[in-house]
Amino acid sequence: MLQLCKEEKGLAHHSASRGVKRSDQACTRDRTSVFWECCAREDTGGPGRWGKLTLFRSSKMVASRSWLLIKHFEGFPKQSDFKLVERQLPDIKNGEVLLEALCFSVDPYMRPYSRRALKEGDIMMGTQVARIAESKNPTFPVGGYVVSNAGWTTHSISNGTGLTPLLPEWPEKIPKSLALGMLGMPGLTAYFGLLDVCSMKNGETLLVNAAAGAVGSVVGQIAKIKGGKVVGCAGADDKVAYLKEIGFDEVFNYKTVPSLEEALKKASPDGYDCYFDNVGGEFTSIALLQMKRFGRIAVCGAISEYNEQETAKGPYVQVPLVMNELRMEGFLVNRWIKRFDEGLRQLLAWILEGKLKYREHITKGFDNMPAAFMGMLRGENTGKAIITV
Q1: Could you tell me which of 355, 294, 289 has the C-alpha nearest to residue 317?
Q2: Within 13 Å and on the Cβ side, how many CA atoms surround 223?
Q3: Using one digit for the tens of pLDDT, what is the confidence trace for 215-241?
Q4: CA separation for the pair 340, 328 (Å, rounded)
Q5: 55 close to 38: Cβ distance less than 8 angstroms
Q6: Dihedral of CA 211/212/216/218: which sign?
Q7: Beta bridge partners of 388
């Protein structure tokens, strides 16, 4: 139902008191920041006479705040590598939508990929959950929610390409930010990396590092659902406690054990059938020597190496791979893009059944995006790192 806005009510009353006809068009304020303004004009027929009330449409300009990457990272990222700017967005055109961000994701991949995908001065890359604030695209009605790759920006305009609507059966009790974590790219990475790359089977033993992070924590829980034994490691005692809480069989703090090799042997004396690698570097060089014959390694990331300014040399992987006939495979989750719906629905089912537990590390405030990103790279988060507007 259309409602008169304050301006029109006042003008209508003012006009009615002088016998002025009100136009049939109602004055409204809608949910898309486009509003109607009202005005009265004086009739030229004589002094003191008023003509009919007329209306005109005006678009309210939308200010978008964005973090730019003004300098490619050299070593560990710095606050000075970023710049916060504000700009006015134009009106949307036919086929377009206006997005209003609710929350943002920061992930390890942004560190190496930013140099490949961005020029200095571009909006920093990343995903967000956004609400459709205004729409001229029937596929994306106003009030709907999508995952967008618009990056670190509060408002953006899209023609719909690359927007992923949240699952239509999204439960009210599940935060929408989970579309950036367990019910998004990290969850799908864990799902397909473990089940398709590692091909883990019932009764096998899995090793996962960075196990308290957005991907590792899901990997370990899925492995338990599939009947495996799970060994996980993290770099803080509170994270180790969290891994025990969500059902990992053996856990340890890799920063405090006297010997990583001995810690791995103690956790699984018979070795490992599967290894889900998020870290790379020296950890992987040691872990490869603990693999069982015909073991499978899913290489998801190498966060220990992302901030190195010089490429490290050796040890090399060929000898353990050949001697134990191991299969080591790197992967990107978009390989399974045609099966994302399958993965998301299975992950949601496990959440609702209580088989998957999640934790989010929430940073409040868009101004804190760079600090949250750097904190994630330092391992300050347990679970998925999320920034709310």
Answers
A1: 289
A2: 33
A3: 999 999 999 999 999 999 999 999 999
A4: 23
A5: yes
A6: positive
A7: 103, 364
